[in-house]
Fold each of these.
Amino acid sequence: MTNKELIESGNAILGIEFGSTRIKAVLINDKFEPIANGSYTWENTLDNGIWTYPLEQIHEGLQTCYADLKKDVSEKYGVKLTKFKAGGISAMMHGYLAFDKDDNLLVPFRTWRNTITGEASAKLSKIFNYPVPERWSVSHLYQAVLNKEEHISKLQNVYTLSAYIHYKLTGNKVIGVGDASGMFPVILSKDGKSADYNPDFIEKFQNLPEIKAISNSSFTIPNLFPKVLMAGENAGTLTTNGAKFLDPTGDLEAGIPFCPPEGDAGTGMAATNAVAVKTGNISAGTSVFSMVVLEKDLSKVYPGIIDVVTTPDGRPVAMVHCNNCTGEHNYWVNLFKEIVDTLVPDNKVSAGDYYDKLITKSLEADKDCGGLLAYNYLSGETITGFNSGRPLFVRSENANFSIANFMRTQMFTSLGALRAGMNILYDEGVPVESMYGAGGYFKTEAGLKYMAAAMKCTVSAMETAGEGGPWGMAILASYAAKNAECGIRNEELAEFLNKEVFGGCKTVSAKAEADLVDSFNIFFERYMKGLAIEKAAVENL
């Protein structure tokens, strides 16, 4: 069956992911190949000290992204997209979308980027003896209670972004276990076939004096948060209103099954075949995080540094999450483009070419990056002890200030906080022999090499590395569709990925080259010593 016939017959699979800078949609065929794409570019805004995306823009972005996908289908295949076999929604994890009983948003969406929940995070981590990061939904919820925010009395539903969009499309208040594990600690059933929020921790939370004092009888974790589902389960179907919401033109048919909504960590694991024990992956774009599937528990809790979340099928994962990655060096690339465009008004070089050429130039840098130092802290970075950040570039008077050294410094600093967190796992003896990468950082060969140097292991990227999120979501939707056809979950997710998705997938790998490892280590020592400069900037600028 051709791709055109597949689309016409409604057998393509849809994946949509809400990233920090782009909403992306992908349609895949029965060979798991992307056959059409759509996107919508956006940026978070700082509203009264809160990093957010307006609800109206969330809706507009989804609809515009889907319309762009429809346009791509029409231009490539000459057909109208009216149905697909299955779909799924993923998005940036964590955060706080709070609604009343009538589905009115009570406060602006508080994204993962906010570090305003330090008090709640610290108290919950201590009470649970379990890492509860600042960006987790329960941290935002508890902080709102501690702050005595007025909206708490009206609160009925709390969602992550993926769970909210899924609710709008299907009417089902559910969430995939991977995304759920970034709302509240979860626990896997003894048979490994289901998961739920940890009941012992729920009891401890509900017994907190501030929580017990709330008069709202619905104020319990099971009532407020979406129901937890495992990868492969049926999470509902597209309603008539949901179809109209996604595609206001009315072309899209209702009744399409959707898989459990997931977070970008889960889709990154699916997109890189990293859901089995001892495997690991890195998602590197606006933010960066590494995921290592554990074979045993860590020796102790590392609040603010190591999170414990799960794969889409509920296996425990050590997660090192950093708020900042490529955002700052993207600003610099755009500045350089603006300079050239000003000097050469008829310049035809694309933005992508600027990025590729400048990053590639960094491979010519001095081993010590010329003595340059930069921090990419557009927001706070908990791993290194910052609740807020200031992007900085610093050099000594005798530094070798060249474009190659500058760009390598920007690429290395994107991974500084990540390496600080990964050092904990190395000290714990967690085996990390190789990792798979997904995200914009891996679009260049240099990015792959630098990640291998920073992680001190082989790093591989697949052909779909730059667009891993929506593709990974489409894979999870395919997995659910297959289970629906079989009537049972007769194949584990790891087996499905190994046999059916990645059997013949092409990858590009980079080993940890000794010279680049040394180069990163030299930079990293400077990076850790220079944190005092970042601290001074935060305190005085």
Amino acid sequence: MSTSSNPRFNHRKYRPFPALQMPNRRWPSRSLKNAPLWCSVDLRDGNQALIEPMSVQQKQQMWGLLVRMGFKDIEVGFPAASQPDFDFVRWLITENQIPNDVTIQVLTQARDELIERTYQALEGARRAVVHVYNSTSPVQREKVFSLDKDGIVAIARHGAEKVKSEALKYPATEWVFQYSPESFSSTEVEFAVEVCNAVIDVWQPSIDNKTIINLPATIESAMPNVFADQIEWFCDHVNKRDCLTISIHTHNDRGCAVAAAELALLAGADRIEGTLLGNGERTGNMDIVTMAMNLYSQGIDPELDISAADDIIATVEACTNIPTHPRHPWLGELVYTAFSGSHQDAIRKCLAVQEDDAFWDVAYLPIDPQDLGRNYQSVIRVNSQSGKGGASYLLEQELGITLPRWMQIELAQHIQALAETEQGEISPQTIVQVFRKAFMPNDGRYMLASYQTEHGNLENGEHHRIQACLHDGSQLLTVHGHGLGSISAFTDALHKTTGVDVQVVQFEEQALTEGSNAQAMAMVQVNVAGQRYCAAAQDADTLSASLQAIVSALNIALIRNEKAA
């Protein structure tokens, strides 16, 4: 009986994918101990899935990121089908953009003219993978190409022969051949082996000159365990297994692309194709970042550098025009943020006892966020009844500023303290008053009266000098300092005069208004004697606002130390 009132939502029009009968499967008892060979297909499969394909500049930017991350195999396009792809491949080769330890890979259909054009694009390459494919699944054979199995095998064999013969025309290049039975996951596994064996028979790979057999889940058709069975069966029955690199190319139609790829490695695969953050056709390709970080979190070297998480996100977004979900595994903006008070408390307690040389063991944090250039940041909980929820949002509405998270955290503490003593709702106006009292005090020991800066090629490698006047309540003090910037020069001056070492940890400026009367808000977090203090200041001059904020932070530190004493 259907649970839907919509007659079109009818599960009976679909049939389950047939599972292999493998009572002696071995892969469930195995575990991953090493990273696979990686191949990025961002510049091919990822690019062809974009509404607006990458420009030349974007392709170059993505290429640079992939090389920096440590990819050794990079599929760079379909040069026979696209002039921009052809031109990009030529740029890589003629401009000597390919490191010696990086191999480019290109895709082509098993058609003579396309294969010939592919080799033209690759002329002069030191080493390259020529990746040829044809469709093998029943629906493709019967409804798209109207061919029987013999006809599909003939296409694959002819394509393999053409790839091999064209390679002989370019002896200066070290050629690697790759074949994909497109829609492998939807193809009878016995027939997939038959087609691949026909290609292998043409190419005659050896242990020293391996062929790549790529087995794609072009459409993810079944559960990951079923795909793993297909891979294990294939590896057990294909010819010349020791002369092959078994590659996997999964898509995310069922949301299991990463899981399918991981289980495929257990089942005998050697190599994984995918994209950064999962871009690709339909629901996307297998996300290499997620899989690599899965390995990393288990103490396995992923052999890719994911440490510059923000750089990866920024580059992928700039090249694909696709925003990264804030809860994307491992790299999302909110992944290491806890909104729950109990979670925040558990994390705080674990971090307090976590030793630097011990295995990572912190509640709710599977890895150390600092490994990815992140920090654990608690966020103000939105709780209308508590009196403190939404404080940052209300402050933004009142003053037009967006607090950085490190200031949100401290503001929340002040609001909570007020909420515990006051009855009823805390108004937006009160929140503004709390903010100004906490971060913009006007009763401190020091006040900035004036300043002058000088910059240029100065001695000792320093580039900035500052002379400032501070009022300490009774007299005017002239302070001098130097540094690599005006801020560091000013903190140097404060240290020389007051004896207090003020280290600027976080800094942010925001415009409050526009036009001739424009105002700016500077917000700082400083470290004084191992403790952090936040402060803010407002001025028409951004540098003046910044220096005033630092003075306020110093005043706050001095006041709190006096009270503690």
